[in-house]
Amino acid sequence: VENLFYNMIARRKTLQNSADDYGKIVDLLSRMAIHHNNVSFSCRKHGAVKADVHSVVSSSRLDSIRSVYGVSVAKNLIKVEVSSGESSGCAFDMEGFVSNSNYVAKKTILVLFINDRLVECSALKRAIEIVYAATLPKASKPFVYMSINLPREHVDINIHPTKKEVSLLNQEVMIEMIQSEVELKLRNTNDTRTFQEQKVEYIQSTLKSSRSDTPVSPLPSGQKTPKV
């Protein structure tokens, strides 16, 4: 993209910090790359040798997450699936991955696709964070990838100006079912938590004085003891 907003001076002035904009681009493409694993993605800053996002066509969603977010994230993921029919009043299918008790991070990452569209749902994110806060230490935040498919008429995309945030029909019922499944998976894997062990060698040093314990003669009156 060249000469972006060349005829909108006010808008172009808000693009002074290119590092922030590039970070947002990398985050967006990273999310797209793990969902659309039938497409190869590559994102490299101008002048850089190494690409910040590089994914290849893969049949496995876990392989796509590994190539984009790293091995440390991919090895600590649990697969979750929820399916509900019309009989429950809330028809949807969800599949995804959530981090287990060994994953530790300070920021929650929720990659949510509804009907193959990258969106946000604050209610779902809050519900998942509640499960992790009750099950795992407070310092750890989850990594969550979810892909939900449901009838298009059950999605309201007009609650946010950028259509980034969505609202769902029977949202409470759907979130409760997903929340219960995530909690069940976490409790079943909570016993397999591992800790890194580090060996520490303690060295006891003994100080030996070379001086003989001779009595110290008192100083004449009016003289101060010199500082050692």
Low-confidence stretches: none
Number of strands: 9
Overall average residue pLDDT: 83
Q: Measured on Cα atoms, how large is the radius of gyration?
A: 28 Å
What is the CATH topology assignment of the largest domain? Ribosomal Protein S5, domain 2
What does this molecule look like?
GO terms for molecular function: ATP binding; ATP hydrolysis activity; ATP-dependent DNA damage sensor activity; mismatched DNA binding. One of its GO terms (biological process) is mismatch repair. The chain is of the alpha+beta class. It folds into 2 domains: 1-59, no CATH class; 76-201, Ribosomal Protein S5, domain 2 (2-Layer Sandwich). Helix content is 30%, strand content 18%. It is built from 6 helices and 9 strands; from the N terminus they run H-H-E-E-H-H-E-E-E-E-H-E-E-E-H. The strands form 3 sheets. Strands 3-4-7-5-6 form a 5-stranded mixed β-sheet, with helices on both faces. Strands 1-2 form a two-stranded antiparallel ribbon. Strands 8-9 form a two-stranded antiparallel ribbon. A hairpin with a 7-residue loop joins strand 3 (77-84) and strand 4. Helix 2 (18-35) packs antiparallel against helix 3 (61-69) and helix 5 (122-135) packs parallel to helix 6. The longest helix is centred in the C-terminal third of the chain and has 19 residues, at 171-189. The radius of gyration is 28 Å and the shape is extended. 19% of the residues are buried. The mean pLDDT is 83.
